[in-house]
Write a structure and sequence with these properties.
Distance between the termini: 57 Å
Radius of gyration: 24 Å
Largest sheet: 5 strands, mixed
Strand order of the largest sheet: 15-16-17-11-18
Strand content: 15-25%
Number of helices: 15
Bound molecules: FE2/S2 (inorganic) cluster, fe (ii) ion
CATH topology of the largest domain: Naphthalene 1,2-dioxygenase Alpha Subunit, Chain A, domain 1
CATH architecture of the largest domain: Alpha-Beta Complex
Number of strands: 18
Amino acid sequence: MSHAKSAEQTSGRSIGPSADEVFRLDGDNPPSFLREDSYESLGNATLAPNRYTSQEFHDLEMKHMWTKVWQMACREEEIPKIGDYVVHDIGDFSVIVVRSKDQTIDAFLNACRHRGTQLRESGTRGNMSRIRCPFHGWTWDLDGKLQSIPCRWDFPEVIDEGYKLSSVKVGTWGGFVFINLDPDADSLESYLGVLPSHFERWPLENRSLTANVQRQLNCNWKVALEAFLEAYHVVQTHPQALPFTGDSNTKYDVWGDNVSRLLTWSGIPSPHMENPPSDEEITSMLVFGVGTEARAEGVEAPKAPSARHALAELLKAQMKETFGADLSHLTVTELVDSTQYFLFPNFCPWLTPALPLVYRFRPYGNDPDKCLMEAQLLHPVPDDGPRPDPVPRRELGPDDPFTDAPELSQISPVFEQDMGNLHRIQRGLKTAKEGVTLGDYQEIRIRHFHKTLDKYLAAGQKDDR
Ligand code: FES
Ligand SMILES: [Fe+2]
């Protein structure tokens, strides 16, 4: 033990198997993007607590960051028919995202060209044959062309060409629709960096929404986001996972300004455990669950060289049976580990078939003490099948637990453990005098996120001068 401790102190990494050791024991040569190490120290400065609590900081984010970034607005499958739309809101900004033609998605500022009225209510979604203002009835086609104006004779200066709806940049990737409020923004493709190449082997576009849950939370949007960017909290917040979760030896990577990743091991015990369970015991926990109900139904553990292999075999069989999807090309780590990506500023798609989650975090209006968190599950579309309809969207209030959303299945109680911390973090940050301190390695994704955020704020404030 003392030897292990000194290794921990000198390497700057946890005891427990490294990525190379886990992959060697798996013995199936995972793709290079998972083996790649892309960590760099980003310093150790503390963060001012008012980044999470002050109206002034929120206003700077709104002005200089949210107006410049590519942000996920919806899934393409949520607007499948011509005229289907989603209103995407961020602070004071509101954008209508609409399927205007079979293969075309457009986005417009949600403001009438006459006297500014919101054309569609914030937060709504539905289908429309045209875009008509509720005030005086000015009307546009779905592609933003002016169609008609009541008492046209009274507006001699209004020419159709100059009175299109104000268009907003749109891009798609992985079945997601992204918008950017900055007309001069670089392409979505360049913004995504390495992300598309890492999802090529199990594409997000070939998946369908099996859960789509939004909840209002009593904390800043960054407090909620950051609770999901590290596995450092597992030992204290999710102790039930320690017997089968390699938490402190999680692998962390960052790429460019916008992308980061964590890779938390499944099927190996936490390095925190003094008396870790045997591999057979871990297999039993993962295959049968902690209770005995699954065993009573006659489930058998696959014959496999390790708990990780057993879980991988089970998952492949389940995905085939439940979703008609063949995942036989994926290696053990791709199947079982918690591999979660982050795209600045607020979008987290998981690579993991075992738990195919996507998170999105947004401010709630302009209140720095509130936010919206969304959790989606994206299961495979059958290889030979029609695309299933996405599940209906569920919206939970601040007092509605995620366990009210049965479609999130086994992850809800884990979310509830995280939720228990969030309002306390927000309250604590309001009273804190000292800066927020981050771990060099395990919290590198949070530091990386703030570094990018600061770039936007600095660039915007420079332009203001
Ligand atoms: S404000 Fe929209 S038609 Fe008058
Ligand atoms: Fe958590």
